[in-house]
Design goal:
single chain, 125 residues, mainly alpha
């Protein structure tokens, strides 16, 4: 199931809110809702299929936990709609650092001085 479709249901969103505070058993999650435990189990199964929830069997109990990685497509869409840009990659700063170092080196060596004046270019302008 698509994570967007899974988030369309208010019960499933509330289950995710509950799981954001920590793993829980289906019995505990069902106690918070006015619907039957099998109905809550069905919602949890859909959330699991959407990659938003993980399940672990511990004896006779099933423990559900929020799978935050499953929210990545949703977060990306919200960031796109909000106009947020992805962070600048670190490699972009490597080229800037190289250029700054080269400029500082050239200035110290006097290579950027105006020919014949011995003065830096910005003083002769």
């Amino acid at each position: 199931m698509d994570p967007f479709s899974a988030l369309a249901d208010p019960v499933r969103r509330d289950l995710l809110r509950a799981l954001a505070s920590g793993p829980a058993r289906v019995v505990d999650l069902a106690a918070r809702h006015p619907i039957s435990r099998p109905a809550v189990s069905k919602h949890l199964r859909l959330l699991t299929e959407a990659g938003l929830v993980t399940v672990e069997d511990r004896g006779r109990e099933r423990h559900y936990a929020l799978a935050r990685a499953g929210l990545t497509p949703v977060r990306a869409l919200l960031d796109e709609l909000a106009g947020r840009r992805p962070p600048i990659p670190g490699s972009a700063f490597d080229a800037l650092d190289l250029e700054v170092r080269r400029t500082v080196h050239d200035r110290r060596a006097g290579t950027d001085a105006v020919p014949g004046t011995g003065r830096p270019q910005e003083e002769s302008a």
